[in-house]
Specification:
Elements (H helix, E strand, L loop, with lengths): L2 H5 L11 H11 L4 H18 L17 E8 L4 H15 L2 E7 L5 H4 L4 E7 L11 H8 L10 E7 L9 H12 L3 E2 L4 E3 L4 H19 L27 E10 L9 E7 L12 E4 L5 H11 L5 H14 L8 H11 L2 H7 L4 H5 L4 H7 L6 H6 L7 E4 L10 E7 L2 E4 L2 E4 L1 H9 L5 E7 L14 E4 L6 H13 L5 E7 L2 H4 L3 H9 L5 E6 L9 H7 L1 H9 L3 E6 L1 H19 L4 H13 L3 E5 L1
Parallel strand pairs: 1-2, 1-3, 3-4, 4-5, 4-6, 15-16, 15-18, 16-17, 18-19
Antiparallel strand pairs: 7-8, 7-14, 8-11, 9-10, 9-14, 12-13
Helix pairs in contact: 9-10, 9-14, 11-12, 20-22, 21-22, 22-23
Length: 601
């Protein structure tokens, strides 16, 4: 396999071609230029129009089988990916001879699902192996000793996750094992998806429906053909796979020159793109790797074969196509299989792997276990470079053709080496006004302003977590919303790190921002954080909640969000005079009503 072929897998094994045809098409497509692919696209569209008697996606619109069997598609989502797959699977179910029902795990209990005849579960994992917050109650009940039996249920699980975390796809893995323990009968094996989930998810849906059709004794469609699902976006829509090249119109460091932080306010022109977003949504950016890290990785593998040729062909791929930093269990396992290194195999299978991964990157692995690799072998152990999501810091009603972002440059030292965040330092160090970046919109319908414009809003967003709240306030100002708005913001130092200070002052002067409470952790001997300001204002904060306020939290999930959540429970207990069980019920009810929403990372 050449380096070019390795960098561009075109057709997945699930494509509706014979194995030999897939290999032939991949070998041809991998060598094509962008101009050649564009020509082929037009040729095939014309050919289809001239010869087909059905639309291009006719297989998806094949007539449904006459007999209908019940099918429940259950999803657990944090950012919307699992819900999107589930919705597509439910649509496909009708064409496969099933009566599909789409169910959010947040809205049901395991007892509700124990009566499902056929159950597809699509579950995301959040952070270090946790279920999505909305699905936590269902998940806990399913794992409990008194969980209902699932003997009459056929099931299959699709797990979504991020392989850079040790507990990759843990939620889906545990749900899959638990349903089997409770007597469920597996339709098809679980599939674990990394951030590039589209192809494996589509293959899982295809495989599951094929197996399920055989189990219920019905043809796959009324004409006997396989119906395939495709999660690819429409050809003309800007998306993760087809991003818009947005021009940078402003690139400003909001920290003072004496700060030990660098936080970039980035303004992007969306003119001509047709892209739309709502406050609470994110902008996805497809970044470039640090050239110095690319060279370090190439140096560590000591490319075998024609090193000069291979290095020249793979360098561009490593720059923008492959993740050359995040070290994960799948990378270690793939490298161990490839090199047949016994020490590496032992590490991959031991309990010491998590400790080894901590603070290390791929270059450390390649240096600690040195082996010469070809370009194709190097590419085979790496995952695709994932996009980075940043909360939109503007309202499109205030800035119609723009999107504003707030990005903190990540720099730190670990294991004797200086480390850099891939996207954040690419933006901070190597981009400037006039440059272009590939972007797309990632909606987040679970982080939205209240529909009623007179509802009060409480926002807790230290550091870059304040970004969506700038969008919230711009939106409320532009729409004339009369609800009160309260912001809790914090950072290190008032003088050097007060992000968007002038914006907040203007919004307060205009009556949009009703009040702002600040916590600068290093301006006094004893550190103060946003949760401490919440406690100081506990009586008024609880009064706002009693008046119907919506509470929003954005920022660090590991520490800040957990501390704020603990403080919220404490405030409800103290200011609300409620016992522990009533406190839990109160906060749970806020979540159920959509009045306690978090966007944490």
């Amino acid at each position: 396999m050449s380096a070019t072929t390795a960098a561009r897998p075109v057709l997945p094994p699930s494509a509706p071609f014979a194995h030999e045809q897939i290999g032939l098409l991949n070998s041809v497509m991998a060598e094509t230029t962008a101009e050649q692919r564009s020509w082929l696209s037009g040729f095939l569209a014309g050919y289809q129009a001239a010869t087909a008697t059905a639309p291009v996606h006719a297989p998806v619109h094949a007539p449904a089988a006459q007999a209908k069997h019940p099918l429940t598609v259950l999803f657990a989502t944090e950012s919307g990916n699992a819900e999107g797959i589930a919705a597509d699977a439910k649509k496909l179910a009708a064409r496969q001879g099933f009566t599909g029902k789409l169910v959010d795990m947040a809205d049901v209990t395991p007892a509700d699902m124990a009566g499902a005849e056929n159950l597809l579960v699509i579950a995301s994992t959040w952070g270090e192996g946790d279920p999505p917050e909305r699905a936590a109650a269902f998940y806990e009940a399913l794992m409990a000793d008194d969980a209902p039996r699932f003997e009459d249920v056929r099931f299959s699980v699709l797990a979504l996750g991020d392989s850079s975390y040790v507990n990759f796809c843990e939620t889906g893995r545990r749900i899959d094992a638990r349903l089997e323990q409770l007597g469920g009968r597996r339709i098809a094996d679980r599939v674990d998806c990394d951030l590039a989930y589209e192809e494996p998810a589509a293959a899982w849906v295809d495989r599951t429906f094929e197996e399920l059709a055989a189990l219920v004794g019905e043809p796959k469609t009324s004409n006997g053909h396989v119906v395939h699902v495709d999660f690819a976006p429409p050809a003309q829509a800007f998306s993760k796979s087809h991003p818009f090249e947005a021009e940078i119109t402003e690139h400003v460091n909001l920290n003072s020159s004496r700060s030990d932080k660098e936080t970039v306010h980035l303004e992007l022109s969306l003119a001509g793109s047709g892209l739309t977003y709502e406050p609470g949504d994110s902008i996805g950016i497809l970044p470039k790797n640090d050239p110095a890290m690319v060279e370090a990785v190439l140096g560590a593998v000591r490319l075998d074969g024609d090193a000069a040729f291979e290095a020249s062909t793979i360098r561009d791929a490593l720059s923008g196509q492959y993740d050359v930093t995040a070290l994960s269990r799948p990378v270690v396992e793939a490298y161990a299989r490839l090199t047949e290194d016994r020490k590496l195999h032992a590490l991959a299978e031991s309990d010491d792997l998590a400790a080894y991964l901590e603070g290390r990157q791929i270059v450390d692995l390649l240096e600690d276990f040195p082996h010469g690799l070809t370009a194709a072998q190097l590419a085979s152990i790496l995952r695709r470079l994932p996009p980075r999501l940043f909360s939109v810091a503007s309202s499109q009603k205030a800035t119609p053709d723009e999107a504003h972002l707030l990005i903190s440059a990540v720099r730190y030292a670990s294991r004797g080496r200086e480390r850099k965040g891939v996207a954040s330092t690419w933006i901070a160090e190597r981009l400037k006004a006039g440059d272009r970046v590939p972007v797309y919109v990632k909606p987040n319908k679970y982080f939205r302003l209240p529909a009623a414009p007179d509802r009060p809003v409480i926002m807790v967003g230290p550091g870059t977590g304040v970004a969506p709240f700038r969008a919230f306030l711009q939106e409320r100002q532009a729409t004339g919303a009369k609800g009160r708005n309260w912001l809790f913001f914090g950072d290190r130092r008032y003088t050097h790190d007060f992000l968007y200070q002038l914006d907040w002052q203007d919004l307060h002067k205009d009556g949009v921002l009703s009040r702002i409470d600040l916590a600068f952790s290093r301006d006094q001997p004893e550190k103060a954080y946003v949760q401490h300001r919440m406690w100081e204002r506990r009586q008024e904060l609880f009064s706002w909640l009693e008046d119907g306020a919506h509470l929003y939290v954005c920022g660090d999930e590991k520490h800040m969000a957990k501390d704020v959540d603990a403080m919220l429970h404490r405030i409800v207990a103290e200011a609300g005079g409620r016992p522990a069980d009533a406190v839990q019920a109160y906060v749970a009810d806020l979540k159920r009503q959509g009045r306690y929403q978090r966007d944490v990372y």
